[in-house]
Amino acid sequence: MMRSLYSASTGMKGQETNIDVVSNNLANVTTTGFKKSRVDFQDLMYQTLKEPGSPLSTGNTYPVGIQMGHGVRPVATQKIYSQGEFQQTDNPLDVVIEGKGFFQIQLPNGDIGYTRDGAWKISSTGQVVTSDGYLVIPNVTLPQEAIGLTITSSGIIAAKMPNQVDLEVLGQIETANFINPAGLKAIGRNLFIPTGSSGDPVVDIPGNQEHGEIAQGFIEMSNVKVVEEMVNMIVAQRAYEANSKTIQTSDTMLQIANNLRR
Questions:
Q1: Buried b vs exposed e over 205-231: b needs ≥16 C-beta within 10 Å?
Q2: Mean pLDDT of the region 186-200
Q3: Where are the domains of the chain?
């Protein structure tokens, strides 16, 4: 059987995966703190028909040999953690990290999740939470009588209280870094959890070492570039079409061979 049939089929399957990733990127183009993904491919094993460097009868060696590939496979969908654009909202509960780092969120099962989404809210009990109601860590409670909210670049949360001249400090934001953020596992809701590939979180105050500073009144938009994703989609579509043409051509060649007459 012709190798091209199987090689082209792996190409079509690979481009299906590519389109799936591109479509997810485009679907989240307005998702706060979203990080785009890309597909990494590898070629499959090769069948060596003539070993490079094997000896010839003349005493020389084959300079290159003959190797036949068997197609392609997707091996990773990697998150790209480039900085998204900042959008000014003037909402005191909207914050962004200027640089590296993740906000820490307490999940319903008690574990800690990590996110770049800083569009925070206030719960009925005055606690700072995410849009899903998950607590932001460290937990901060805003008194009902507080007038305004201030978050410094180093993550200090303070508020003006009645009959007080100075601001009252309510808490301190801490951010987490990972040696390999691409190894984090996305679980939806703009959240990630650590894995053995990401390494353990390194928690520190914003602005320390490689931890980015905090900016209040902004949200970080998705880092998806629509034009770039449209180009990727066109390339994937054409590659899919080319592989389907390869299958059609291989089928035609087999048909010709089957119709041979003496």
A1: bbbeeebbbbbbbbbbbbbbeeeebee
A2: 96
A3: 3-50+63-81+225-254, 86-220
Query: Which pLDDT tens digit goes with each residue over 62-98?
Result: 788 888 889 999 999 999 999 999 999 999 999 999 9
- Return the number of other C-beta atoms located less than 10 Å from residue 81's C-beta: 16
* C-beta of residue 175 within 8 angstroms of C-beta of residue 209: no
Provide the token pair at 104.
């820490």
Peptide bond into 138 cis (omega under 30): yes
**CA dihedral over 194, 199, 205, 206, signed as positive or negative:** negative
Phi, psi values for residue 109, rounded to 5°: -85, 5
Contact 174, 138 (CB under 8 A): yes
Task: Give pTM, 2 decimals.
Answer: 0.89
CA 122/CA 142 separation, integer angstroms: 8
Spatial contact of 29 and 226, defined as CB atoms under 8 Å apart: yes
Mean pLDDT of 156-164: 88
pLDDT at 257: 87
Residue 57 has pLDDT above 80, yes or no: no
In degrees and rounded to multiples of 5, residue 94 shows phi and psi of -95, 125
